[in-house]
Amino acid sequence: MGRNHQKLNNCLEELRRKAGLTQQELSEKAEVSRKSINAIENGIYVPSTVLALKIAKTLKCKVEDLFKLRL
Fold first, then answer.
1. For residue 60, what pLDDT is reported?
2. SS3 of 9-48
């Protein structure tokens, strides 16, 4: 993880729930492990650009909707 990850907020759990998906369902659709989804939601793991794009596509949103920098 980058040294600035503490300044990164994510809305993944909120957007996933709005889409009516469980962590398992999202992980299958985005082709990633459920543990990765959980770690991202809990701020433990910052996804790669490719993974962030896959998740955004699955949730039909922009990456900027999922992740925001606190300045």
1. 97
2. EECHHHHHHHCCCCHHHHHHHHCCCHHHHHHHHCCCCCCC
